[in-house]
Amino acid sequence: MIEMDNNIFDLMKKANEITLKNHGNIITLERAIFLSWWCDKGDCAFCYMSTQKNKIKDPRKAKRNINNIYAEAEMCKRLDWNIEFLSGGYESFSTKEIKKIAANIKEITGDGVWLNTGITNDLEEFGNEIKGITGAIEIVNPKLHDKICPSKSLDDISQMLDISGDLGFKKAITIILGLGETLEDMDYLLNYIKNHKIDRVIFYSLNPHKETIYANSSQPASLYYAQVVSHVRLAFPKIEIICGTWIDNLANIGILILSGANGITKFPLFKMFGTKYGKRVEEEVKWSGRELKGTFTDKIKLGLEKSKFNPELDKFIKRYIKESLKNKY
Ligand code: SF4
């Protein structure tokens, strides 16, 4: 059983060596693209969407403008950010619509798209516009999972991931640390990765939202987060690990990279771009001895206020550039 390791630095040192050996020194910036602000389930105890469900009268209005989504993808391409996945609450877009959006984004970025759009039985409808499927496990303790995410059955998620693999898609899971799990649950996580042949693990740290039961909870400690990531890296040298950290916790970045992260995520990209916070992300990566793919500061990379793909995207591109140039902090 995994227990608290008093020699966290040894653990991180080993994890770092294994990461460098298997993945090289590039760190990616990952950006989740949201499709909508509506979720039909809306009952996961930690989730911002669960606080919005009763406030949204017409779910169709919570859908984002498609051209805005494409413009965001085009900006990610310009800044060399990876698209972490397309994400959206349940029942906001049909499978056909998601497939079309993914195909158009592939045109823009030149790369297949990961999906994190909920449990689905329609996987066979997808083709090479999709690179992989993400199962939102969220919490690595099955008993707590039933309480915290009552409408997202762990069995259904696992089954979807297994079918994804059979269809040739890669498989990812998302885990939020700080929901009540402990290091004792890490054996479950390691077994899950092994049994379902997971290619990519995305960790987030709890963001305690107002109006949820976690409103007054603390985010997980940096060295706890580091231990979890290090253990996963040591057990699975080749897996891709993405670590999320919020703008109020940027000091975690260097530690998480040294623990085995290949990419970092969960930033308000356009707000942070070019600011002291964007610069801090780049400094964290530099001081962990890595090279960043993409930029948080290079204004030239923002490019022209015109889309290369479709003039209907121009007004959104213009808005993203304006937001990136406005220092809000
Ligand atoms: S299913 Fe996803 S979007 Fe919906 S409430 Fe749960 S975590 Fe939030």
TrEMBL record:
Every Radical SAM core domain range: 22-248
Cited Gene3D superfamilies: Aldolase class I (3.20.20.70)
One GO-annotated biological process of the protein: biotin biosynthetic process
One term of GO molecular function: 2 iron, 2 sulfur cluster binding
Keyword tags: 4Fe-4S, Iron, Iron-sulfur, Metal-binding, S-adenosyl-L-methionine, Transferase
Alphabetical list of InterPro entries matching this protein: Aldolase_TIM (IPR013785), Biotin_synth/BioAB (IPR002684), Elp3/MiaA/NifB-like_rSAM (IPR006638), rSAM (IPR007197), rSAM_sf (IPR058240)
Annotated EC: 2.8.1.6
One Pfam family cited in the UniProt record for this chain: Radical_SAM
Stored PANTHER family: BIOTIN SYNTHASE, BIOTIN SYNTHASE, MITOCHONDRIAL
Protein known as: Biotin synthase
Gene: bioB_2
